[in-house]
Write a structure and sequence with these properties.
The protein is of the alpha+beta class. It has two domains: 2-81, lambda repressor-like DNA-binding domains (434 Repressor (Amino-terminal Domain), Orthogonal Bundle), CATH 1.10.260.40; 96-204, Jelly Rolls, CATH 2.60.120.10. It is built from six helices and ten strands. The chain has helices at residues 2-18, 20-33, 38-45, 49-56, 64-73, 78-81, and strands at residues 101-103, 109-113, 123-130, 135-138, 146-153, 156-160, 163-167, 172-176, 181-185, 191-198. Strands 1-2-3-10-5-8 form a six-stranded antiparallel sheet, with no helix packed on it. It is elongated.
Length: 205
Amino acid sequence: MAIAIKDRGKEWEAGAQAISGQLGKTIQRLRKAYNLSLSELAEQSGVAKSIISQIERNETNPTLATIWRLSQALDVSIERFLASSDEEPFIEETRAAATPILVSDDGKVRLAIVGWIKTVEWLQWYDVTAEPGGVLEAEGHQRGSVECLTVQTGEFEVEAGEETRRAGPGDTLRYRCDRNHVVRCVSGKPGRATMVCILKAAVME
């Protein structure tokens, strides 16, 4: 394992130099998304506030160790942290046949993962289809997470903590999902909805 990590380290160092122009923007965007000040990120990462400021302004090329500390503090994998967006196509597609599907324990609720893999650490969204009576039981996500369920067809019920609410076509339910929660299709016909999960939502801190 140690050998593999050492080899990958060389690749990460090369990648860090190649994307120095994007790294600062990425760190600043994530820091603001998590509602962190420079001082707070410095405290959590162990990287000096002045160094983080220089990185965000693209005035310095950080070492791999610095990038590792910042990626850990921002809860982002280092591989994605070093990914450059400049070299990627403007249009990216995923065909229906290649879209990952999650299925509830009762087999009646299906979640097509339509969200972008690059945002999975803080933003996830799904196309939800459910048979009548279908139940999706989920354990709590990380603290501060909020889920939004917008119903397109049918009727859904959400149970989060002590609260239970229903929603029909065009309605949206927003609820804390950092505790066990349940989504049910309570109509007599199939239902469809869009589910968006915001991890570490600032409004819940």
